[in-house]
Fold this sequence. Notes:
The complex is a heterodimer of chains A (109) and B (114). By secondary structure, chain A is an all-beta fold. Chain A has no helices and eleven strands. The radius of gyration of chain A is 13 Å and the shape is globular. By secondary structure, chain B is mostly beta strands. Helix content of chain B is 0%, strand content 50%. Chain B has no helices and eleven strands. In chain B, strands 2, 4, 5, 6, 9, 10 and 11 form a seven-stranded mixed β-sheet that branches. The termini of chain B are far apart. The interface between A and B is medium-sized, with 26 and 24 residues.
Amino acid sequence: QKEVEQNSGPLSVPEGAIASLNCTYSDRGSQSFFWYRQYSGKSPELIMFIYSNGDKEDGRFTAQLNKASQYVSLLIRDSQPSDSATYLCAVTGGFKTIFGAGTRLFVKA
Amino acid sequence: ETGVTQSPTHLIKTRGQQVTLRCSSQSGHNTVSWYQQALGQGPQFIFQYYREEENGRGNFPPRFSGLQFPNYSSELNVNALELDDSALYLCASRPSTGAGYGYTFGSGTRLTVV
């Protein structure tokens, strides 16, 4: 079992729709959870961080965490073509941060 | 505020050679991690340094080693290069080793082993 699992996609949504990205993790001792966005040919950039159960909103982005289910998600409202990228889920526990393989998102204009 | 800078941007090496990749952390960041990213994959954790000591390591063999300097710049050294070492190597820094801090990534070094 991979430590951090994501659907590879691609996930295709029309412009203006809600994109839902999901992630599960195996280590129950994990402490912090991150979402990074990576455009093709670029390095990852941090977009959201969550460490408590529940929802955290930042602009068009909402991160959701359920530690009992070991599940993290990212919702992108009013999706724009510029949101087309690979979204990486990352989980921190101890002295390491483990990334999932990423989900490719395409937003169609 | 400067970001994370890596050098070189591209590198071609022959199998069996050794390589050193360099990283300058973002100002105020005392924790640095190195990741290997193969095409179409997520970043794979190599190791983390905090105040010049390695305090976390992923599933990479000992031929992958590192250093962090007092100014928080760092190096990744890879000995006895193999073809499978061809990848993008990412340096990432953060303000603390605490779990609540996300990384700032450099632009990466693209290593090709032939």
